């Protein structure tokens, strides 16, 4: 068992939360946001968006545990898959912001991303 100070876990979790905010909101362009939701032409916008997450996760990895650089690839893969599934479900159900299920889907998407970041924190501190 590895014992890590609570402040270390809290600080790294905060860094990953900020990373998520930056990549999912501030760095996501209209091209990414609209393109990744499409039935066609979604691959590049989604890859660029997931790449923002991976790039920032790589920066965190290089700062705290350089040998875990590969976790950026894990983040890319998970973020890509979660957002793709959300896009497919959203398109098939034709949800719009005025419907509660739209927000349930959005919230579930964000929950999965948050859990991914917590998993990455655990990996950074234990591998």
Describe this structure in words.
- There is one protein chain.
- By secondary structure, this protein is an all-alpha fold.
- It has one domain.
- It is built from five helices and no strands.
- Helix 1 (6-26) crosses helix 5.
What would you call the structural class?
mainly alpha
Major β-sheet annotation: none
Terminal Cα span: 11 Å
Low-confidence blocks of residues: none
Estimated radius of gyration: 16 Å
Summed up, the domain count is 1
Helix amount: over 70%
What's the count of strands?
Answer: 0
CA-based shape? globular
Task: Please tell me the overall pLDDT.
Answer: 97
How many helices? The count is 5
Brief overview, please?
Helix content is 78%, strand content 0%. It is mostly helical.
Write the layout of secondary structure elements.
Elements: H1 6-26, H2 30-35, H3 43-64, H4 71-93, H5 100-126
Helix pairs in contact: 1-3, 1-5, 3-4, 4-5
Key words describing this protein structure:
127 residues
